[in-house]
Amino acid sequence: MRRLNVNHLTRVEGNGAITIEVDGKKVKRVRIEIIEGPRLFETLAIGKLPSENLNLVPRICGICTLSHRYASIRAIEKCLGIAVPKKTFLLRELMHHGEMIESHSLHIFLLTLPDLFGYPGAPALADKYEEYLKEGLELKKFGNRIMEVVSGRVIHGENPVIGGFGKFPTEKELLKLSSQARCLIPLISHTIDLLGDSKIPKYLDQETQYVCVNPPKKRYGFSGDSILISDGQVFDAEDYKKVTNERVVDHSYAKRALYNGKPYTTGAIARINNLGDRLNGMAAEYYHKYWNNRWKKNPIFNNTAQAIEILYCLEKIQELIDQIIALRNHKIIKPKKENGTGTGLVEAPRGILFHSYEIKNGRMEKSDIITPTGQNLDDIERYMRKAAEHLLEKNEKDNEILRQLEIIARAYDPCISCSSHLIRVVRK
Fold first, then answer.
1. Which of 48, 49, 229, 399 has the most CB atoms less than 10 A away?
2. Regarding the domain delimited by 41-419, which CATH topology (the fold level of the hierarchy) does it fall under?
3. Residue 311 has pLDDT above 90, yes or no
């Protein structure tokens, strides 16, 4: 029996490791280990005012900050009986699209392209592929700018609040964002072609399940009040535990999730697989150009799915801004009650995010947060096992086996800091 280890998984958010145990050419065990300390945000929320919780939970992550804030707002407003006007809803969608562009650009151009071109990291791309790096950074900067304009600052913006916004962006600021979005479309278009034409190894192909938010009115999008499964099942947001079925494992600080007793995948690839037929515009054209049934079997296609979503966001932003400008500003909507329960669903860049609360006498009584990476971990291990088995049969060297396993993990764009929510369980 021998062990192969990646002690520090590189080019991901947070600290993780990979261990595989091999007996001859047989893989005995594959583990992706979340080695960051427990975060305990659910416990920290108890006894807080809803407004305090809203400022607490985005600190789970510096990348998915607005996804956590948006999911929290949706849950709290359900608890307190708040229905916000359309302008607030549209502005929240706009800020969320900005985070998608920022996060996807970071992952594709700085974390994934080195794998595609065979380089150890983004700086090594500069000599030969400088154009892609510059385009990626320009897209990322634009995503950051949307977050700054709408949420108040690039990271941990405080402007989106329970019942509305502290300050509405000006028409001038919004029109500039719309113009920039239109100009950036060519930058992502040829990157979609680059990723879409790349060769994805078939030895990874195996069936899995895909879970995402089910946006209303049969639209593509990143928020909603129901959950869509690739088997066609739809669950109400409040029934989320029937989908996630969380459990603990003995080698990780992060919980795991199974739907119908089996692993599943969330993220851009889940959204494209489940909702791709709802796309329109240029995003729809690229979807129909590159999507095929192998996308349902292979996580590496997540990279292309993210690129298509960047294009979708750039097109959608212009539509959102036109609608926002046509609507009047409004005052913050006050709560109608002090007690209630509610679950907020949004799509973080890495997949479906759940914030579920109970508020009692105006204070946080219960909090449950389930992050995308925690849901993806079982499938990540399953695909890494399949890869290791194939590569061992081909007598690949240990370094190459580990390199391929890192590529699989990175394709999921894991947000490890978000996933570590509990004290480690050690079974004897």
1. 229
2. Cytochrome-c3 Hydrogenase; chain B (1.10.645)
3. yes
CA distance 267 to 305: 9
What are 385-422's pLDDT values in tens digits?
999 999 999 999 999 999 999 999 999 998 766 655 44
Structure tokens at 104: 């996807």
pLDDT tens digits for range 98-133: 999 999 999 999 999 999 998 888 899 988 999 999
**108: which DSSP letter?**
I
Domains in the chain: boundaries: 41-419
DSSP 8-state secondary structure symbol assigned to residue 355: E
Spatial CA neighbour of 209 closest among 132, 296, 131: 296
Helices 86-105 and 65-80 cross at an angle (nearest 10°) of: 150
Looking at the DSSP bridge assignments, the partners of residue 34 are 16
Alpha helices in 335-371 (DSSP H): none
CA–CA separation, 245 vs 310, rounded Å? 31
Q: Which burial class, exposed, middle or buried, applies to 119 when counting CB atoms under 10 A from its CB (0-12, 13-18, 19+)?
A: middle
Q: What is the pLDDT of residues 16-66, one digit of tens each?
A: 788 889 888 889 888 887 766 666 888 899 999 999 999 999 888 878 899
Angstrom CA distances, 12 to 17, 103, 333, 370, stand at 11, 12, 39, 19
Distance between CA atoms of residues 415 and 72, nearest Å: 18
Asked if residue 404 lies in contact with residue 203, where contact means CB atoms within 8 angstroms, the answer is: no
Residue 34 · residue 419 · CB < 8 Å: yes
